């Protein structure tokens, strides 16, 4: 009886909403009178909405007495109407990226629609995706929605435990350019040192931008250095912030993993709480200020107790604990009818705790005898200890600019400043050379990257040249700063030389004064971009860009593209381009001594800076830009009135890729004496060491049909990707040591940046207040090599996601569901020889298992 009483208010509210509702029917057409399939019809101020069927028709039960409908579809201008009775007829005009809109990646034409781009572009409606799936952060959201995008959480990977690396088309995290509202966004200051994804790379931390602040994400799957500059070898991710006004949206989400592998009897772990708020107000004629606040708390998962064949490497293994707080702003401030100012950006504060490898109380010597562990202390930790690497990350960027029409020219001038600061701490640890008097908490230092960009874009459309010529040109001036700062003395000092005890804090030795760096550089770039409609069916595009860096020189890139409409149902498209990526300041200057665990034994490894003593001894040249050549060819179209499809094949060749080399031991005849003098057992460094070739195919097939009184949208999206290491280039001093310099194990990490295929099949059904989503994601097998030189063949895996939603009232919607419903895990391997010290490396869909979630959304 008690449960019935609790449900009564919800039933009453729902019944009241139905009692005052009215049924609205209509049809959405384009300007040519063709049905717009899958257009979204939303009753403004509520969470009530539906999509159009194969004939562009919709049937919506309104929940307010005087409903106002908002009709939108990708590639069309959004309309708002107030129905007055009878059948509603709506005609949507094709949308161009006008002065009122946000630029779509892949084209600078202000008359180019999303649907006729000569390059493949994915458009992801973040509001729709987040309302129906269990993923809460941007990386995980894209991992399961976009087949060419891959990101996994890591553990035992120092800073990468706190900042998830992500890749596009299986290339490096730093080979994808990230824009926000069309403006270059700063990268993280972190260099990824471990794991199967992002090894040796820097990248942009997408999780600093809350999903609640995002309207859509555009993914340009094509080389675009000539259009946007460095880093765009694999493509561009453009994050478009929300512009809505007079609408308050609040979400509370909670989920947890079912703990299949644990020491204890807990049923759930990794609890994930997210709460966010978004609201916008109108400013003047067509202006707005949109604000978002977001908080996310994620608890540890524990996956150390697994059915691994040869014992245990770590007592604690799983996701880190993270507290993430963000605030974002997006605004447009009209100054007159032709000019407006804009300001957007935000900040993110993150606190994290990640487990390092276990330091057991005893170890074995070279003869196999049990001895006290020189990295532990039996008085402080009789049972050994599990160090905790903590992070304190502050990330922020702000952009301010003016945009307007000056005669026939559209001019956009902006300045942006971004910063990422990563500060390490270590707890539950010790400096063994201090004995039982050692502190247990340490400041380990950190690093910071800052970026300032002044950008000018000018464009004009000449309608009388052929069927239309769009000309764009501009310039960008960028300054970057990178610094590395030391921790406290106890985090790195050896207080007992000659004792055999390990110096520095265990888990993450602190940065030393000799590691400190303050570096900067300037970059200036100019570009020219033209798009010509030779006929109404044939489009050609060309772009060229020149850039000069003060620390390594100049670069010139170019791109040509074309699209040919064979008829209304089929178009062909193709691109050819050259590209480049400048070495990051972090790759040039980062240096440290870190601890890795190989075969169960900790080893101190020197990662030398590019101009450091080991690099000089080996004749490693200064890092220079990576250069690429890429091509794509494909077709887009529709079959009948309900099915749309895009298929694009691609080729990417990258020369002089910057990689993190293998480790050279102190027994090496060439660099052994140098390593011994520095007191480290092994060393590695950054070098332009490899060339790679990638072949792949992207395909997306989608249709929307009416099923009963509801709508069923089906999407099949797939990425096939094969990366080959075609050349390894060593220095004369390392001739014959290619196997160590960049051998099969290091090459396997590069190849494993993406599975050889990923296929996503999604069914999304909506009927009145009810919605259901079922998604299958098939991950191809991944191959790595363990520390013993043996293969780790991770078999292909299929995950299943299910979500159900129901509108309890006009403003309140509840969603329940599960990600990885059947609790699928990667293949298991010996934790003593994996990269992470656990039974699997960070591959495919991750290693946490089934995730159950609930979401409550309020919209006014």
TrEMBL record:
It comes from the Bacteria. GO terms for cellular component: cell outer membrane. It is a multi-pass membrane protein. Residues 114-236 form the TonB-dependent receptor plug domain. It comes from Hymenobacter setariae. Belongs to the TonB-dependent receptor family. It is found in: Cell outer membrane. Gene3D superfamilies: Carboxypeptidase-like, regulatory domain, TonB-dependent receptor, beta-barrel domain, TonB-dependent receptor, plug domain. Residues 1-19 form the signal peptide. Keywords: Cell outer membrane, Membrane, Receptor, Signal, TonB box, Transmembrane, Transmembrane beta strand, Transport. Its main location: membrane. InterPro entries: Beta-barrel_TonB (IPR000531), Beta-barrel_TonB_sf (IPR036942), CarboxyPept-like_regulatory (IPR008969), Plug_dom (IPR012910), Plug_dom_sf (IPR037066), TonB-dep_rcpt-like (IPR039426). This is TonB-dependent receptor. It holds the Pfam family CarbopepD_reg_2. Residues 348-821 form the TonB-dependent receptor-like beta-barrel domain.
């Amino acid at each position: 009886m008690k449960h019935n009483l609790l449900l009564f208010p919800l039933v009453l509210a729902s019944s009241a909403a139905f009692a005052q509702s009215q049924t609205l029917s209509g049809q959405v057409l384009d300007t040519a009178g063709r049905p717009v399939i899958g257009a979204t019809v939303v009753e403004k101020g509520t969470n009530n909405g539906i999509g159009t069927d194969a004939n562009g028709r919709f049937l919506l039960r309104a929940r307010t007495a005087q409903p106002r409908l908002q009709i939108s579809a990708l590639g069309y201008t959004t309309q708002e109407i107030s129905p007055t009775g009878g059948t509603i007829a709506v005609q949507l005009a094709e949308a161009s990226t006008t002065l009122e809109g946000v630029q779509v990646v892949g084209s600078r034409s202000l008359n180019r629609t999303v649907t006729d781009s000569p390059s493949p572009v994915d458009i992801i409606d973040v509001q729709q995706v987040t309302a129906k799936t269990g993923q809460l952060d941007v990386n995980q959201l894209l991992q399961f929605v976009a087949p060419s995008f891959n990101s996994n959480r890591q553990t035992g990977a120092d800073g990468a435990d706190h900042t998830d690396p992500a890749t596009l088309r299986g290339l490096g995290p730093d080979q994808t350019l990230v824009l926000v509202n069309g403006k270059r966004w700063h990268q993280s200051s972190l260099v990824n040192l471990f794991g199967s994804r992002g090894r040796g790379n820097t990248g942009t931390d997408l999780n600093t931008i809350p999903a609640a602040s995002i309207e859509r994400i555009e993914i340009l799957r094509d080389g675009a250095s000539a259009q946007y500059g460095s880093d765009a070898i694999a493509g561009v991710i453009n994050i478009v912030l929300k512009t809505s006004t007079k609408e308050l949206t609040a979400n509370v989400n909670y989920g947890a993993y079912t703990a299949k592998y644990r020491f204890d009897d807990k049923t759930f772990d990794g609890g994930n709480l997210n709460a966010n708020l978004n609201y916008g107000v109108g400013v003047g004629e067509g202006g707005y200020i949109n604000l978002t606040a977001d908080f996310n708390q994620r608890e540890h998962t524990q996956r150390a107790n697994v059915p691994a064949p040869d014992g245990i490497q770590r007592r604690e293994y799983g996701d880190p604990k993270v507290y993430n707080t963000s605030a974002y702003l997006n605004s447009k401030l009209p100054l007159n009818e032709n000019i407006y100012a804009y300001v957007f950006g935000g900040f993110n504060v993150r606190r994290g705790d990640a487990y390092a490898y276990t330091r057991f109380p005893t170890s074995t010597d070279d003869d196999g005898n049990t001895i006290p562990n020189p990295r532990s202390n039996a008085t402080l930790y009789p049972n050994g200890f599990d160090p905790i690497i903590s992070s304190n990350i502050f990330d922020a960027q702000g952009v301010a600019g003016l945009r307007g029409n000056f005669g026939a020219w559209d001019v956009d001038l902006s300045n942006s400043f971004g910063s990422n600061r990563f500060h390490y701490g270590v707890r539950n640890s010790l400096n063994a050379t201090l004995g039982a008097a050692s502190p247990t908490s340490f400041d380990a230092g950190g690093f910071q990257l800052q970026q300032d960009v002044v950008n000018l874009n000018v464009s004009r459309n000449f309608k009388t040249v052929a069927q239309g010529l769009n000309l764009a040109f501009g310039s960008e001036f960028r300054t970057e700063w990178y610094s590395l700062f030391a921790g406290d003395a106890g985090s790195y000092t050896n207080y007992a030389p000659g004792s055999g005890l390990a110096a520095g804090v265990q888990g993450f030795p602190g940065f030393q004064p000799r590691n400190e760096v303050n570096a900067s550089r300037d970059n200036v770039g100019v570009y020219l971009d033209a798009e010509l409609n030779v006929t109404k069916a044939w489009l050609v595009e060309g772009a060229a860009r020149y850039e000069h860096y003060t620390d390594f020189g100049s670069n010139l890139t170019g791109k040509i593209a074309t699209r040919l409409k064979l008829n209304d149902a089929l178009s062909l498209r193709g691109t050819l381009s050259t590209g480049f990526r400048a070495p990051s300041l972090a790759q040039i200057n980062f240096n440290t001594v870190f601890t890795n665990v190989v075969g169960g034994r900790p080893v101190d490894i020197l990662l030398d800076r590019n101009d450091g003593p080991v690099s000089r001894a080996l004749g490693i040249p200064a890092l220079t830009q990576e250069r690429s050549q890429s091509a794509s060819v494909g077709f887009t179209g529709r079959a009948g009135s309900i099915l749309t499809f895009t298929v694009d094949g691609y080729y990417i060749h990258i020369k002089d890729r910057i990689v993190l080399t293998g480790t050279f031991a102190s027994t090496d005849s060439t660099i052994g004496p140098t390593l011994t003098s520095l007191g480290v057992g092994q060393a590695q460094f950054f070098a332009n060491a490899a060339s790679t070739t990638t072949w792949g195919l992207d395909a997306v097939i989608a249709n929307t049909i009416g099923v009963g009184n509801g709508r069923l949208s089906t999407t099949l999206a797939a990425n096939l990707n094969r990366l080959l290491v075609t050349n390894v280039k060593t220095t004369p001093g390392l001739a014959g040591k290619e196997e160590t310099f960049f051998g099969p194990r290091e090459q396997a990490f590069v190849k494993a940046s993406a599975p050889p295929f990923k296929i996503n099949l999604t069914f999304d059904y909506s009927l009145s207040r009810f919605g259901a989503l079922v998604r299958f994601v098939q991950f191809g097998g991944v191959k790595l090599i363990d520390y013993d030189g043996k293969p780790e063949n991770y078999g292909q895996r299929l995950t299943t996601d299910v979500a159900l939603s129901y509108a309890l009232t006009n403003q309140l919607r509840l969603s329940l569901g599960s990600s990885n419903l059947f609790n699928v895990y990667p293949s298991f391997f010996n934790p003593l020889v994996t990269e992470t010290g656990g039974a699997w490396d960070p591959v495919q869909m991750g290693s946490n298992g089934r995730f159950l979630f609930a979401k409550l959304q309020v919209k006014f």
